[in-house]
Please model this.
Amino acid sequence: MNLDEIGKQIVDAAYEVHKSLGPGLLESAYEACLKHELSLRDIKYVSQKEIPLIYKGVKVDIAYRLDLLVEDTVIVEIKSTDRLTDVNLAQIISYLKLKDLRLGYLINFNVKYFKNGIKRVVNNFEEE
Model:
């Protein structure tokens, strides 16, 4: 699958979770259900993937963790908050840079309409 196909599968799976559960639950509940939905679609993922921070050639022991790394190419960060902030966006941009990946999704499940809770992030700029 190419990045666009993987992205479509992620969005479709997340939409299915949101449609079934609605807003108001904990991030961990949405993450568990999204993992199940991806498994049903035979999509590979790793949950809570630790990523190292290398500073000037030295590995700094800080445990950054991705919510989901899908098909080894797409980062998914899951939120359940009143609104996404610039800090949430900066987080996924930083993760993309640290992993040297191009595509990520920032998904806030705590919204009435799913389309208002999803942001597609490409490298270090945001696409609406």
The mean pLDDT is 93. Strands lie at 45-55, 58-70, 74-79, 103-108, 118-122, 125-127. DSSP finds three helices and six strands in the chain.
